[in-house]
Amino acid sequence: MSKQTTTPVSMTAEEFKTAGYHLIDRIAFLLDTIQERPVTTTKTADQLRSFLGTAPLPETGISADAIIKRATNLLFDHSLLNGHPKFLGYITSSATPIGALADLLGAAVNPNVGANILSPMATEIEQQTIRWLGEFIGVGPSYGGILVSGGNMANFTAFLAARTAKAPKSIKTEGIASSKPMTVYCSKATHAWIEKASFFFGIGTGGIRWIEQDEHHRIRIDLLEQAITRDLENGCNPFMVIGNAGDVSTGAVDDLRSISALCKTYDLWFHIDGAYGAPAAALPELKKVFEGIADADSIAIDPHKWLYSPLEAGCTLVKDPNTLIETYSTHPVYYNFNDTESRPHNYHEYGFQNSRGFRALKIWAALQQAGRKGYIQMIRQNIELSQLLFHLADKHSELEAVTQHLSITTLRYVPLLGLDTMDNRETYLNTLNEALLNVLQRSGEVFLSNAIVNGKYCLRGCIVNFRTSEKDIVEIVETIVHEGRKLHRKLMNHSAPVQLMNHRQ
């Protein structure tokens, strides 16, 4: 074996094994004891900076083993652990251990999955992964797509494909001004990515038509059609309707079948933001809820949400993959990526990035480890735990259960005493629950997020966590009530409600 050149970042096999074995041992211990740790750090930003230190960039190198040991201590002791069974905040899942190992393996090979010649096997694995994702949620074999960083990018990628497909061909050379005013339609619960996309990509936020929801938190189809016809009469170019498959606040799924029918009637691009909820389409008992998903022109789905992949992992699925090529493909003279004989699949032609990391491996590995049945079992269990949270809140005298869709429950703390004499009861409850959320998030015992539902400030539990159990849900309810009582007494005793309510008004 020839001797390798020694550089400041080289490691011998023994050095690599020493650092690696230590790291794997520590990670294994973390995963085995994660439920015994605080959900999040209780240290302030100043304290964290003091732990990290303010030393200048080292002039000479430090051993890899020492760096790994220090980094492990810093991260394990001072992070929010979204793999903790009592983390129900936002929509960040507990990550599969095999995903972490796959990321290490992928980084060791370090393929650039922008061009087939730079990533021959990684490209094939990404194609297979995307096909499996489509199969899992029940769309046809024609669907293709690309893996991206997350929900924003998955939706952006589809948005531009829709704009390209529905705008005049002159848009590529003359810009968005060559089109009539373009308009896009979505419910008022749609994620903020739509505002970014409309601003970034020339539609303007004034081109968004925000449609009211019905009593089940789904987009109102009658108002949607009225908005489309009104824009057509006013000389606009309606081009895209977004259906939510699990909206970000409550988890509600829009009437996808009816949206699809409208899009066909008016020749609009039908996009589904299923970044969170689309994996639940695999459950047989939810087939009717997701009816119409296979009619979508594009779908955003984030494996790092309900498929438990480590960050980052999003995906844009499109019914006709050629729409991505028409939108993103370029052929600069310095690329030598097109072998006319083998017709390679070059992912730089399907999205924003040229250089791309190997995101597929961690998803590909976990899909095989769990299989379709394993994922269905875990997703179903998350939904059942969310239903349990709603049920426990509904029967508790000091909690109000507000909504429950998929694996998201919203609720709020409502004290038994002190509300009857208040003129502004609802304002106080909003203030109390907002303060309660901050207390809970800082406590390290449980981590929830928030939602505003019909003007109510709610605590929001989103369960995309394969470690969460019934015991955790029961204890979370107890913690909410315990901390809610303490905070209510404190606010009432210090006459703080008036100050806080005036501040919010």
Automatic annotation (TrEMBL):
The modification N6-(pyridoxal phosphate)lysine is found at K305. Pfam families: Pyridoxal_deC. One of its GO terms (molecular function) is pyridoxal phosphate binding. InterPro entries: Aromatic_deC (IPR010977), PyrdxlP-dep_de-COase (IPR002129), PyrdxlP-dep_Trfase (IPR015424), PyrdxlP-dep_Trfase_major (IPR015421), PyrdxlP-dep_Trfase_small (IPR015422). The keyword Protease does not apply. Its cofactor is pyridoxal 5'-phosphate. GO terms for biological process: amino acid metabolic process; carboxylic acid metabolic process. This is Aspartate aminotransferase family protein. It comes from the Bacteria. Belongs to the group II decarboxylase family.
